[in-house]
Structures are given as C-alpha cells and as structure tokens.
Design goal:
- The complex is a heterodimer of chains A (284) and B (326).
- Helices cover 73% and strands 2% of the residues of chain A.
- With 284 residues, chain A is mainly α.
- Chain A has a single domain (3-115, 137-276), classed as Orthogonal Bundle (ABC transporter involved in vitamin B12 uptake, BtuC), CATH 1.10.3470.
- Chain A has a two-stranded antiparallel sheet with strand order 1-2.
- The radius of gyration of chain A is 19 Å and the shape is globular.
- Chain B has a domain at 23-246.
- Chain B contains 15 helices and no strands.
- Chain B has helices spanning 2-15, 24-47, 56-74, 78-102, 108-127, 129-132, 156-179, 181-191, 193-198, 203-229, 234-237, 240-253, 260-279, 286-301, 305-318.
- In chain B, helix 2 crosses helix 12.
- Chain B is globular and about 60 Å long.
- The chains are: A mainly alpha (284), B mainly alpha (326).
C-alpha cells in the first residue's frame, strides 16, 4: 500500500479519537437531558485556555493543569445546566438550542476580553514515532490513547455503577424512571457534570495539538454536532463509530485533494446521511 | 386601511431622513440596520413556521460573491449581478430544501443540515481563493470615472434609498404572504405536519414557496451589504457566526411580527456600535458577550421577543375575555 495513504488512514483514526470525546459528551447530555448544547465546543475552548494559562503562565505542572481544567469545565457544565438549561426544560427545543447559542457568544466574548484574539500555543511536543513504514506524531498518539481511556472509563461508569445504570435508564424512558424512585433532576445534574468533564478532557487533548483562540470552537464545533447526529443523537456507540468514520473521510479526503475540500466532502456526506437515514447511521 | 397608511407615512418619513443632513456615521449605522433587518426578515419568514435555518449566512455569501465576481471578472454591472446572485442563492436553497422537505428532515435535524450547508459554502469561498481572495476578502473593482452608477457605488444618501426600498420589499413580501392561503397552510404544517397533509395541504410545495422567498430576501441583503461595504469576507457573509447573528436578531426582536426582525437588527447593530463608542475597539469582545447574554435572557424571560410584548398587549385589547380565562 502507498505509505502516504497508510499515513492518511492512521491520521484519520487518530483524528477520530479527538472527535470521539466531545461527541460522547454531547450525546450523553442529549440522551439524558434531551437538550443540545450548542456551546459545547466553546466549553472545550475554555478548557484549552485553562490548561494554557495554568501551564504556560502560572508554571504549574502539566498533569495538575489538566486536572484543574477537567474539574473547571465540569463545574461550567453544571452551571450551564442550572442557570440556562433547567429553566428552559419545558420550552420548545429550538428555544433551548438558541439559549445555549447565546452562551456560545458569551464564552467567546469573555475569552476575547480576557485573552484577546491572539493565538496561544502550549509548546509541548513529543517526538514522532515510527510504526512500520509510517511516522506518527507522538502527541497525537498519546492524545488518542487518552481519548480511548476516557471513553472506556465512561463506558465502565455507565455499565457498572448504580448512578450509571440510572443514567442509562432515564435516557431510555424519562416518564417511568421517576416512578422507580430516580430523581431526574439529580441525574440531569450528574450528566451535565460528566458532559462538562468530557469537554475538559477533550480540551486537554486538543491544546497539545492545536493553538487556542476565542473562535477555535467554530473550527471543530460544527463537525462534532454532525458526527453526533450521524451516529444517532443520544446513541453513544453510534457517535463513537461515526467519529472515526468522519476522521477517516477528512484525512483520506485531504490525501487526495486539499484539507478544505475534504471538509466539504465530510459535510456533504453528513447532509446525504441526513436525507437517507435521519435516525442516524448506526441506529438499530 | 390604517395599516397601509401608517406604513406609507413611515416610509415617506424614512425617505426624508437624508434631507435632515444627518452625520455620515449615523447614516452608516441606519443603512447597516436596514440591511441587517432585511436578512432577519428573510430568515423569520421560515423561522416563524418552525423552519429554523442555521445556514442563512450561506445565501448572503452566495449572492454577494456571485455579484462581486461577475463585476470584477466579467464587468457585469451589479444591477444585473444582484438578481443573478439571488437566483443562484435561491437555486442552492432549493437544491438543499427540496430533499430535506421531501424526506421530512425537521426540527433539530433541519437546523443541523442547514448548518452543514452553510459551512460548506464558507469553506468553498475560502478554498476558491484565486478568485475570492480567500479569508483575506475581496474588494469590488473601482469603476471607470463617471460610471459610479454602473458599478452601483454610491454615497451614503444613495445607498440609504436602495436599502430602504429593499427593506420595504421584505415587509411587502411578509404582508403578501400573511394574506395568502399559504400562511394558514404553513401555520398548520408547523403545528402538525401529518394532520396538515391529511386535510390536503401540499406540505412540500408550501414549504418550498416560503423557502424561496426567505432565501431571496436574505440573498438580496447579502449582495447589498457587500456592495455597500465594498468589501466581501467569508466570515462576515457566510458560515456559522453570521448565521447565528441573523437568527439572534430576528428572535430578539420577535419573529412573529413583521417589524420584529427590524427591531432586532436595530438592537444588535445599536449594541455593537454603542459598545464600540463607549469602550473603544480594544474591547471588541464585549459585543458578543453582551448580546449572548441578551439572547439567553430573551429565551428565559421573553421567548417571543420584544415585538411579542406589543403583540400580547394588542391581543388583550382585541379579545374582551381577560387573561384569567386561561
């Protein structure tokens, strides 16, 4: 096989790993709370700034900066739920989407005010590794591993803990679960916190490979939504698989054409999927 | 016949604005408000029937770039370029909307499909950088001396009239639609698509009709904005940012009343300019911050927008039964 094509394939899978975390977070929140967080990518942006600030400006060790970032974005997720989403739970979905869209502008505005529009880089890099005939960026590989670990931890949590079971149950039937003694408000809160924490983890993995600026969310936000919907909104496994599919399309598309056109192909693919299988590619 | 009379008087009053000799800056703000209002009015044509598009920026961009490229590369006057640009935008809108409606992509899904389409247009504009200038933007060529009218390059007064006519056209479309059967049909469709279809409403064709009007108005707004600024940029004429701004303006003002999107445009532009004046350019981040907060507040406390307040008051006056009857 052409080594460059092989490299594109490997990079596509690595890119899929990057998309996977925000997709899982969004899907969790949507599946449980039934609200789309339009500002999800902006939560990731805040997390990226947090890591940059604590590591590059305050001189904290990187793991500590990561931990604080994850905690901080989890708290943001909870605040978002309490202040914006909860009062709107009975409103039409479009009002909820628009309100979280308002939060998107707020976060961009706050970031611009505090950090200006300058691009900030972490400046952490790991040496590339040679796997067979292909060179793989060490940073990307490490990020990919961490993304898989995060996804695995989420899966284990949902599968093996009591709260995880309650979350899955309420995602399946929100009318009956209150009768079984599950407090939906508490579950919503926990899901929002986990959704936020996943955005924080995604931020840690993105900041090592991407410069952060107030509008960085717009560069990967739209595509994460599309991946979610393509996998079937609320369908965690579907979203996870769709993330890798999208990563491959973009990476291999970039191998044959330009990166820009590969995004056009990816978006067009999304539209076609919506026309043919609006319930999602991997819906049962 | 009071409504048309009031509208006529208002239009005459607005047409007389340049005669008062307002400062250039004020004219600039007013023209921007009118053009933004036109885009919002176009968006609300669909939005108020539950067809929420997050990709209307794309239509502004398609029309504006078609017009500018025809002028720069073929020397075709914008007077023809704008209708052609609108035609191309409407065609693109139909190409997207027809399968979406036919295959019943609704709600969230429709919003996301339009979002994807908007991003595609933005990326394509950037990718065709040999012609469009990519992210750096594009400036329409200067006309030969004395041919300013051919290039549609006027001073602020001239553009005030163009913007005013375009804006009024948007409102006329709104009223005509409101009086037609289509308005009733669309209201029924937005309540319950299956029920509407079962009483013989042709769901897809009614939706297509309103989409064509909506896209055409947004496209006109985009082309005129580009022509007024004499500068085109993919971020400000296509993509998610501008699309959400259009949506915000229309929602804040109120998308169920004809004047709502105009109120919304006045608020967003007024806010942006006001913040710029009071805080200076180094605080540009404050503008999205404030109108993001406002958007959240509107959703929380008055989801029908500012025009919604008057609407409720008018309804209370019209119906003798007090609100306690609910």
């Amino acid at each position: 096989m052409d080594p460059f094509l092989l490299e594109a394939l490997v990079n596509g899978i690595l890119l899929g790993g990057v998309f996977a975390l925000p997709v899982l977070g969004l899907n969790l929140v949507f599946g449980v709370v039934d609200v789309v967080w339009l500002c999800y990518a902006e939560l990731v942006m805040v997390g990226m700034y947090a890591v940059w600030f604590f590591y590059s400006q305050m001189g904290w060790p990187l793991p500590l900066a990561f931990a604080v970032c994850i905690g901080l974005v989890a708290v943001l997720g909870v605040l978002l739920h309490l202040l914006v989403v909860r009062p709107l739970l009975t409103q039409p979905p479009i009002n909820q989407v628009l309100a979280t869209g308002g939060v998107l502008f707020v976060l961009q505005g706050v970031a611009t005010l505090i950090f200006s529009t300058e691009f900030r880089a972490l400046g952490v890099d790991m040496p590339p590794m040679e796997v067979g005939e292909v060179f793989v960026s060490g940073t990307k590989l490490a990020a990919f591993g961490a993304a898989l670990l995060g996804a695995g931890a989420l899966w284990a949590f949902l599968k093996f803990t009591y709260v995880g079971t309650a979350i899955r149950a309420i995602a399946r039937d929100r009318e009956v679960m209150p009768l079984m003694g599950v407090d939906p408000q508490r579950i919503y809160l926990i899901a929002s916190a986990i959704g936020g924490a996943l955005a924080g983890l995604a931020a840690c993995l993105l900041i090592v490979q991407l410069d952060v600026h107030p509008f960085v969310g717009l560069s990967f936000g739209p595509i994460t939504f599309m991946i979610c919907v393509m996998g079937g909104l609320g369908n965690m496994l579907g979203g996870f698989l769709a993330a890798f599919l999208m990563g491959l399309i973009i990476s291999v598309g970039g191998f044959w054409g330009t990166t820009e056109l590969s995004y056009v192909v990816a978006f067009a693919f999304f539209i076609v999927v919506m026309f043919i299988r609006p319930q999602g590619l991997f819906a049962r | 016949m009071t409504a048309p009379l009031t509208a006529g008087l208002l239009l005459v009053a607005l047409a007389a604005v340049p005669l008062l000799g307002p400062p250039d800056y004020l004219m600039h703000v007013l023209i921007t408000v009118l053009l933004t209002a036109l885009a919002g009015t176009g968006w609300a044509m669909m939005g108020r029937y539950g067809l929420v598009s997050f990709g209307h920026g794309a239509f502004l961009g398609i029309a504006a770039y078609t017009m500018a490229l025809l002028w720069n590369e073929a020397g075709l006057t914008p007077w023809l370029g704008i209708p052609i640009g609108m035609g191309v935008a409407v065609l693109a809108g139909m190409l997207l909307a027809y399968p979406a409606f036919k295959l019943r992509v609704v709600g969230h899904y429709f919003a996301l499909v339009t979002l994807a389409a908007g991003e595609i247009v933005r990326i394509l504009i950037v990718a065709m950088r040999e012609h469009t200038g990519g992210s750096l933007g594009l400036t329409p060529a200067k006309p030969p001396p004395g041919a300013g009218w051919l290039a549609m390059q006027f001073d602020k007064t001239g553009f005030w009239y163009i913007a005013l006519i375009a804006w009024a056209l948007g409102l006329v479309c709104w009223f005509l639609l409101d009086r037609s059967m289509s308005s009733r049909a669309l209201a029924a469709i937005s309540e319950d698509e299956d029920a509407a279809a079962s009483i013989g409403i042709r769901v897809t064709s009614e939706k297509m009709k309103v989409t064509v009007i909506s896209v055409a108005l947004a496209a006109l707004a985009g082309a005129l904005t580009a022509q007024y600024r004499q500068y085109l940029n993919p971020e400000s004429l296509a993509g998610l940012g501008i699309s959400l701004q259009i949506v915000f303006g229309a929602i804040a003002g109120g998308m169920y009343a004809p004047i709502g999107p105009t109120i919304g445009a006045a608020i967003t532009i007024g806010l942006e300019e006001g913040l710029r004046i009071f805080f200076g350019t180094e605080l540009t981040g404050a503008a999205p911050l404030v109108y993001g907060l406002l958007l959240v507040m509107f959703m929380l406390f008055m989801p029908r927008g500012i025009a919604g307040l008057f609407e409720r008051r008018a309804q209370r006056r019209a119906t003798p039964a007090p609100a306690a009857a609910e």
